[in-house]
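Data deposition worksheet. Section B asks for the primary sequence of the deposited chain exactly as it was used as input, without tags or linkers unless they were present during the calculation. Section C holds the resulting structure in token form. Section D is free text for depositor observations; keep each observation to a single sentence. Incomplete worksheets are returned to the depositor.
Section A, Depositor: J.P.
Section B:
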Amino acid sequence: MRALVLSEPGRRLQQRHCKRPVARGHSVVIQVEACGVCRTDLHILDGELAFPNLPLIPGHQIVGLVDEVGSEVTHFRVGERIGVPWLGETCGVCKFCRGGRENLCDQALFTGYQRNGGFAEYAEADSRYAFAIPDSYDALEAAPLLCAGLIGYRALCMTDDAKHLGLFGFGAAAHIVTQIARHQEKSVYAFTRPGDLRTQSFARSLGACWAGGSKERPPTTLDAAIIFAPVGSLVPDALSVVGKGGIVVCAGIHMSDLPSFPYSLLWNERVLRSVANLTREDGDAFFKLAPQIPIRTHVTQYGLAEAMDALDDLRLGQIEGAAVVTPQQSAPRKF
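Section C:
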């Protein structure tokens, strides 16, 4: 099969012919129809996330058709469309797994990081950590739901009953979270790179009531903010626009160092917290909610050979919505 392989951090992905995986036990082999591109992929390529299982096929927002099932697979059939998220495997016995927080398992393995991912024509996954894709979604529009959607949903849940919600960094996750928040009758305030008028217009088109640069102040005090951009200096910016008892959630897996800031920004019972990974319970709830809203993803399509172009475009902030790699197709299109 064709696949894009990372040989070592700091190198560009190389297209190679690799051995097709085989389904064993609880695993399934998927013919990959689409794989979302995520900033986490850049963190892995750049060496900002330590100890990837090299050589590695990245990609952790996989949608495809089941091509082969292992002997212990009970709930998926050949030909069924399923999705594979970042969380690929856990131990099932540690205090976190037993306590409903499998996202914190010390023995967890992650798709496209310790397990080969979806920048390939076929991928293998543990069926117990995969999700059925709702019938109302095709592969292309479903792919961003597997990380941008799931992590965004988990982060949103951590903002409690916030009515005025700020989103710092308006990319794949924020464009999905905006739709959920508006469904919940929250007011959304989008913070972008200073001067990024195109993204600000995109945010307003999805229902944001205000959009501006990250250093601007919104017209009202916010109840909570989610930071999707991996920029530590945004933390004091976010704290400065949430009110007493407000919540700031850092939703990325990696962030540049936080600068020092006055305690007064945190005082009055403001809360600063992070989000780590996801649980299968998150996924079940999210994929029940998504078609009810319904969430519609805005996607730019890239073929497998163009995946590095997608990563470059993401790095430069040139993606509106989400980027998706389709290993079975080559022509990029926008949806």
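Section D:
The two ends are 27 Å apart (CA to CA).
The first strand starts at residue 2 and ends at 5.
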